[in-house]
Amino acid sequence: MANEPLGFVGLGVMGGAMAKHLAEKGHRLTVWNRTPAKAEPLRGRAEIAETLEDVTRTARIILLCVSRTEDVLELVHRMAVTAQSDTLFVDHSTIAPRAARELAASLHDKGLHLLDAPVTGGSIGAQSGTLIAFCGGREEDFDRARPYLEAYTRTARLVGGAGAGQMMKMANQIAVCLTLLSMAECLSFADKAGLDLQACIELIGSGAGGSWSLQNYGPKAVVGDYTPGFSVANQQKDLRYALEAAREVKASLPGSALVHQLLAALENAGEGERATTALIEVLRSLSGQPTAIASISTRASLGNRET
Ligand code: NAP
Prior knowledge:
By secondary structure, the protein is α/β, with parallel strands linked by helices. It has helices at about 15-25, 50-60, 70-80, 95-110, 120-130, 140-150, 165-190, 195-205, 210-215, 220-225, 230-250, 255-270, 280-285, 300-305, and strands at about 5-10, 30, 45-50, 60-65, 90, 115, 120, 130-135, 155-160. The longest helix has 29 residues, at about 165-190. It is elongated, with a radius of gyration of 21 Å. It starts with 5 loop residues before the first strand and ends with a helix.
């Protein structure tokens, strides 16, 4: 078994589950989280570092799963000061591809390495250890990281040089947001037309109109269950990076831009922590139907007024 000492930074919904798999597989692991309480479930199975810098003293491979580009840059630049030479950072956060490329170059100048390795599969995939990781970087760094990624992925693939993993994740998020729109538009129309929504999911879901989104998000959308899962705020962050990346490669993303604008209605109403499935409520509101989310219901309620 590969046996380099590992560090894990960022023990949120995704990172906490990944670190747990590493500990359970018997890897030598030091963990750190900004809010210390989230490290407690790992006590006894991993070393809990008091400071971020403490992680760099023992770990030779440091995995992280935090939130936005600026969080990754802040933490990795801080760790780079005390990291041992040849340390490999493996970043599972979803961040801007350009930032990942620039970070890899700046670490390389210091004798340090970065593998960008954003994941798909959500909290369920993290808990069951069945994530898919899109990796970007040098082949030797991928080979070095792969035995550890096996603890919580069903597939980890090197898809290109630095930043390519994040680019692949952008392509993933484009597909995800468009199947989300397809599910939401299909079901809000069916509802307005008075169709049986369970039948809709069953019949359409098994044919050419079917999708993962319709099968998995559809039943939740029907009952108005918008507990994340994957939040509107996270999807909007990812779509901002995707639209930025599209400008960079001179691609056009009309569908993703539309979903970004529709989800902005939820963000602007202070509903960013709801699951992305709540997109259906925006469409219901545009069709003049009552919505289950009061803060976006103005249009429907104005439409219903007899003045
Ligand atoms: P989360 O539960 O909110 O966890 C975020 C983690 O990052 C927390 O441990 C947080 O520390 C830490 N963090 C954020 N900013 C920090 C900073 N500036 N300094 C130190 N620590 C910081 O988020 P998540 O759902 O695990 O997502 C993590 C990443 O995975 C994101 O980039 C997300 O887009 C991506 N992702 C998420 C999913 C999903 O379904 N959730 C799926 C695929 C990819 P505190 O505990 O102190 O707040």
